[in-house]
Amino acid sequence: MKIINFFISVVVLISSLFRVDLGYGMNPTQKTVDLEGYELVWSDDFEGTELDRSKWNDNQNVDTLHWGAVRNGGYWHKDLISVSDGNLHIRTKYLDEETAAKYGGDYKAGWYTGCVTTYQSNPADESNPDTFLYGYFETRCILPAGEGLWSAFWMMNSGVYQVDGSGKDGTEIDVFESFGYPERERMTKDCVSVNLHWDGYEEAHQSYHVGRYYAENPYTQYNTYGVKWTPEEYIFYINGHECGRSSKGGVAQNPEYLILSVEIAGQNGEAFGRGDITKNTGDVDFIVDYVRVYQQTK
Q1: Rg (CA), the chain
Q2: For residues 187 and 177, what is the distance between their CA atoms, to the nearest angstrom?
Q3: Model pTM score
Q4: Contact 79, 270 (CB under 8 A)
Q5: Residues of the chain whose pLDDT is less than 70?
Q6: 110-134 residue pLDDT tens
Q7: H helix intervals, the chain
Q8: Among the four residues 157, 163, 213, 220, which has the most C-beta atoms within 10 Å?
Q9: Which residues pair with 40 in a beta bridge?
Q10: How far apart are CA 34 and CA 38, in angstroms?
């Protein structure tokens, strides 16, 4: 038994030092993203001091998003979204009853954060499309270093809610979700999660966990996260290196919009083993340097 335990300890140590894949799909391959034949068709480098509303919608109450202000264990509000120092900031903080009451409606004392989406950003302006069909989609960001929450870069359309046994009409494409803070498991420290969802979110809901993949100190430094979406498959990348691919559910064949968001994991952030949000000191920011979209030109 001692020999077995020693062997397991050595394997875990080696995997943590050299990031060896032990079946979790954590290890990016040496394949790099190939954008030959692609061109940059849409981007935001978050310059200036205001969110570019010709590209992004920060209205957290857009009914057609099927969401609204109350989101999981907290609230989304545009006041938690800002642009400065060449970055988008989505902040998470606690607002007391007096501050929250100024927002009216369903807003109460609690944890607040936000999201931005290209959905209906400016549908009349054809030079700034709010949805995209196929391409390579990438963001560069620092994940929010706080317990009880997670950030994400993802894609959606209304077809995701169609229950027909297929994701071809629409699939929630989670380019990444940041479930790795704080360290809950040695093997998943500094990992992000990549997932696919289709057939709505009720009883018929289907999903596929593509994998957990390492990034480089993602809560303190920038990493890039991307997906190449083709008619045949989704190929996921971290820092330009392929980490996973899938065509589960049938690849989406309809345009989708982009989303950057932070969510609270249930009351006090304790759902899904995400920790206790009350332990966080000060405000916590999801910091996004850029979002870029490339599509084939030939």
Answers
A1: 19
A2: 17
A3: 0.87
A4: no
A5: 1-29, 61-70, 123, 182-187, 268-274, 298
A6: 889 999 999 877 767 777 779 999 9
A7: 2-18, 97-101
A8: 213
A9: 294
A10: 9
